[in-house]
Amino acid sequence: MTIHRQVHIAWPERGIAADVDEDIAELVLTCWQVGVHTLTSCQEYPSTDVVRRVQLGFYPRSAEHFLSIAAGAPDEVEGSLYMRVLEGAGDPRRWTVDFSAGDHAPEGAARADIRVRVFVVFPFDDVEEVRRRLLQGPRLT
What we know:
Helix content: 25-40%
Distance between the termini: 32 Å
Number of helices: 4
Shape: globular
């Protein structure tokens, strides 16, 4: 069940389609087009601060690529996207990264099949800049 209006997006070249939150549909589609596979998305992730936040879920390789492109060139400028991705403590526009693990092994399997999922939460105001950077950056292959 979703609480936000959803739209159907598709990338036929890869056979990918999903219903996603309307305000981040272009970002999710852009992720797919540059090889970044998303697992989950939410246009208004619950937060205790006043900044509207987006959440995207990825497998680790896609998360690393997404974060590297979004952060841009390394700098030490306070408040820059790069600094907010890496060291946002105290900045209400900080980015956060969390992870979880789940077992994908079929019932009765002899061993576990653990998969890690990475969740990136960032300000909605960064969506367009991140999308622009993804379109200009290298594809994940």
